[in-house]
C-alpha cells in the first residue's frame, strides 16, 4: 500500500466510509506497520460510522497483531482500546454489563487505556483522550462516579478538552434532573445548586474549545455538543465563596467529598460527607434496634475520611510531619525514604482499599448470605469452578439480573482489581497489589532519584517511587469513595424494588442524626 493509497483511505473515511472499508480490506501482502495501522484505523472508524461489526473486528485483529511485538506503545494501545470500545457498542444481541463479548471487550479496553495513562512517553493530549474514553466506558457499567472523576482529570491534563467537558456536563445534567425528581432518595448525594454551577462552568469550556471537539469527535458531533452547551450556559452564574480551610479546599479540588458537589457553606460548617441511605426495610431479626447496615455505613465513611486526612497530612506537611519521628534508620543506599510519615502514607492506601472488603461484608449481610461476616471483596461474588469460570452466588446473580446499577458497578470493579490467568490483570490491579504488599510484606518508597529497575531478591519487598505511590493512594481514595456511592446505589435500588412488590407490607426505619442525638 503506497502513501498515496493511505491518503486516499483517509479522504474516503471522511466522504464515503463504505468505499473506505472496501479499500482498507484490500490489503496487500507486503504492508509496512504504519500502513497496516492506517488500514485498521479506517476499518474501525468507518465500521463504527456504518455499524459494520466485522470491519471493526478486523481492525481489532490488526491492532492486536501490531501491539504484540511492539511491547509498550501508547499510540497502539490507545487505538486498540478505542477499537474494543467501538466493538463492544456494536456487538450483536443484548448488551450485558456482567458477561459476554461486550463485557470482555470493555474489560480489555480499560486495560489498554490504563496502559496509556501509565506510559511516561504518552503525550498530554493522548492521556486526556484516554481518560475521556475510559470515563465513557465506566458509564456503560453504571460506574458514574469514576466516570465523572475521569472527565475531571482529563480536563486537568488538557484544559482545552471540550469533549471531556461535554461528557461531564451532559452526565451532570442528567444527575441534576434525577436528584431533583427523587429528592428524598438523593438529597445526601449532592448540593444541587453547586452542581448546576459546575454544569455552567463546563458549558463555558465546551463553547470556548470547539476546535478540540472537532479534532477529537469529528465535525458532525459539534452541533449536538454546542446545542447542549448553549442550553447549560443559560444557568445563572452565582459567585463562589472561597473555602478558607486548606484541607477542605484540597478535598474540593480533588473531588474527595462523600458528596458529588458541596457548597461553600457546607465546607464552612465542616459537614460535607453527607452520603447516606435515606431509609431501609427492617427485618424481624432487627427487633426494635436500628438495622446493622447503618452502623456499617457509619464505620466505612469514618474509615474513608480518616484515610483521606492521613493522606493530606503526609502530602501537605512534608518533612514537617505532624507524626512524631522517634526512630533512627539505617540508610539502604538506594534512595529509599523511611519514617512514620511513609508508614502513614502506606496505611492511608491500605485503609482506603480495605473499604472494599467492608462493603463486601455489608453487601453479604444485606442479602442475608451465608457466612456473610467472612466475606471479602474477592470472594463475595461466587466460587471459581474447575475451568476457572466464576459461578455467581444466587443472591448476587438475582440482583445483577434485576439490573441493580450499584451492584453492577461493584462487580465490574471486582474484575478491574483482580488477576485473571486467561486475560491478565485488571487495569486497577495495582491498588490491590500494593495493599497486599504493605499488609503482608514490605513496601519501601524511594525519592525521584530511584530508577524502576530494582527488584527484591526475596520477593518480600516492593520498591516504588514516592511520587508514583502518592498518586496511587489518591486513586485508591477515589476508588473507595466511588465504591461507597455504588453501595448506597445498590441499597436504594433494592429498597425501591421491594417497595414496588405488589401486596408486600414493608416497614421502613428512619434513623436520626448521630451528632443531634449526642447533643453536638
Brief digest:
Helix content is 62%, strand content 4%. The protein has 22 helices and seven strands. With 520 residues, it is mostly helical.
Q: Could you explain the architecture of this structure?
A:
With 520 residues, the chain is mainly α. Helices cover 62% and strands 4% of the residues. The protein has helices at 3-15, 17-25, 33-50, 53-70, 74-90, 101-118, 124-139, 144-157, 162-181, 183-186, 192-208, 210-217, 222-232, 246-253, 264-269, 292-317, 340-366, 394-401, 405-416, 429-440, 466-500, 514-517; strands at 280-281, 336-337, 382-384, 390-392, 442-446, 461-465, 508-509. The strands form 3 sheets. Strands 2-5-6 form a 3-stranded mixed beta sheet. A two-stranded antiparallel sheet has the order 1-7. A two-stranded antiparallel sheet has the order 3-4. The mean pLDDT is 91.
Task: Describe this protein with a few key phrases.
three-stranded mixed β-sheet, 4% strand, 520 residues, two-stranded antiparallel ribbon, 22 helices, mainly alpha
Instruction: Provide mean pLDDT, rounded.
Output: 91
Structural class: mainly alpha
Beta-strand portion reads under 5%
Poorly predicted runs of 5 or more residues: none
Radius of gyration: 25 Å
Helix content percent band: 55-70%
Q: Tell me the major beta sheet.
A: 3 strands, mixed
Topology of this protein?
Layout: H1 3-15, H2 17-25, H3 33-50, H4 53-70, H5 74-90, H6 101-118, H7 124-139, H8 144-157, H9 162-181, H10 183-186, H11 192-208, H12 210-217, H13 222-232, H14 246-253, H15 264-269, E1 280-281, H16 292-317, E2 336-337, H17 340-366, E3 382-384, E4 390-392, H18 394-401, H19 405-416, H20 429-440, E5 442-446, E6 461-465, H21 466-500, E7 508-509, H22 514-517
Parallel strand pairs: 5-6
Antiparallel strand pairs: 1-7, 2-5, 3-4
Amino acid at each position: 500500500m503506497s502513501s498515496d493509497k493511505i491518503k486516499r483511505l483517509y479522504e474516503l473515511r471522511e466522504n464515503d466510509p463504505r468505499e473506505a472499508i472496501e479499500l482498507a480490506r484490500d490489503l496487500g501482502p507486503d504492508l509496512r506497520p504504519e500502513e497496516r495501522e492506517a488500514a485498521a484505523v479506517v476499518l474501525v472508524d468507518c465500521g463504527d460510522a456504518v455499524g459494520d461489526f466485522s470491519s471493526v473486528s478486523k481492525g481489532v485483529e490488526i491492532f492486536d497483531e501490531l501491539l504484540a511485538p511492539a511491547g509498550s506503545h501508547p499510540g497502539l494501545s490507545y487505538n486498540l482500546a478505542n477499537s474494543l470500545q467501538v466493538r463492544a457498542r456494536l456487538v450483536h444481541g443484548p448488551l450485558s454489563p456482567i458477561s459476554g463479548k461486550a463485557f470482555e471487550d470493555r474489560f480489555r479496553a480499560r486495560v489498554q487505556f490504563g496502559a496509556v495513562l501509565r506510559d511516561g512517553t504518552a503525550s498530554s493530549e493522548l492521556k486526556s483522550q484516554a481518560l475521556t474514553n475510559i470515563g465513557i466506558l465506566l458509564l456503560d457499567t453504571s460506574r458514574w462516579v469514576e466516570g465523572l472523576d475521569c472527565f475531571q482529570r482529563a480536563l486537568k491534563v488538557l484544559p482545552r478538552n471540550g469533549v471531556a467537558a461535554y461528557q461531564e456536563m451532559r452526565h451532570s445534567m442528567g444527575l441534576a434532573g434525577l436528584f431533583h425528581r427523587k429528592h428524598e432518595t438523593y438529597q445526601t448525594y449532592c448540593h444541587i445548586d453547586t452542581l448546576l454551577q459546575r454544569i455552567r462552568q463546563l458549558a463555558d469550556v465546551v463553547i470556548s474549545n470547539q476546535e478540540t471537539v472537532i479534532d477529537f469527535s469529528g465535525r458532525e458531533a459539534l452541533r449536538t455538543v454546542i446545542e447542549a452547551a448553549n442550553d447549560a450556559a443559560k444557568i445563572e452564574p452565582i459567585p463562589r465563596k472561597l473555602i478558607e480551610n486548606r484541607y477542605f479546599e484540597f478535598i474540593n479540588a480533588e473531588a474527595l467529598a462523600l458528596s458529588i458537589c458541596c457548597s461553600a457553606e457546607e465546607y464552612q460548617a465542616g459537614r460535607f460527607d453527607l452520603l447516606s441511605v435515606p431509609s431501609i426495610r427492617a427485618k424481624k431479626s432487627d427487633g426494635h434496634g436500628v438495622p446493622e447496615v447503618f452502623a456499617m455505613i457509619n464505620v466505612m465513611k469514618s474509615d474513608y475520611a480518616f484515610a483521606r486526612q492521613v493522606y493530606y497530612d503526609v502530602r501537605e506537611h512534608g518533612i514537617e510531619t505532624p507524626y512524631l519521628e522517634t526512630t533512627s534508620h539505617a540508610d539502604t543506599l538506594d534512595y529509599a525514604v523511611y519514617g512514620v510519615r511513609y508508614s502513614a502514607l502506606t496505611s492511608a492506601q491500605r485503609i482506603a482499599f480495605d473499604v472494599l472488603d467492608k462493603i463486601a461484608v455489608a453487601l453479604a449481610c444485606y442479602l442475608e448470605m451465608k457466612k456473610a461476616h467472612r466475606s471479602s471483596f474477592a470472594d463475595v461474588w461466587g466460587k471459581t469452578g474447575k475451568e476457572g469460570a466464576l459461578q455467581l452466588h444466587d443472591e448476587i446473580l438475582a440482583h445483577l439480573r434485576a439490573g441493580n446499577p450499584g451492584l453492577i458497578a461493584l462487580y465490574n470493579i471486582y474484575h478491574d482489581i483482580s488477576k485473571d490467568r486467561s486475560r491478565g490483570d485488571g487495569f486497577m490491579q495495582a491498588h490491590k497489589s500494593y495493599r497486599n504488599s504493605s499488609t503482608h510484606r514490605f513496601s519501601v518508597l524511594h525519592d525521584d532519584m530511584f530508577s524502576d529497575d530494582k527488584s527484591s531478591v526475596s520477593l518480600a519487598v516492593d520498591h516504588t517511587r514516592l511520587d508514583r505511590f502518592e498518586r496511587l493512594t489518591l486513586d485508591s481514595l477515589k476508588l473507595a469513595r466511588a465504591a461507597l456511592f455504588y453501595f448506597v446505589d445498590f441499597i436504594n435500588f433494592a429498597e425501591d424494588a421491594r417497595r414496588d412488590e405488589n401486596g408486600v407490607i414493608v416497614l421502613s426505619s428512619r434513623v436520626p442524626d448521630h451528632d443531634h442525638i449526642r447533643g453536638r
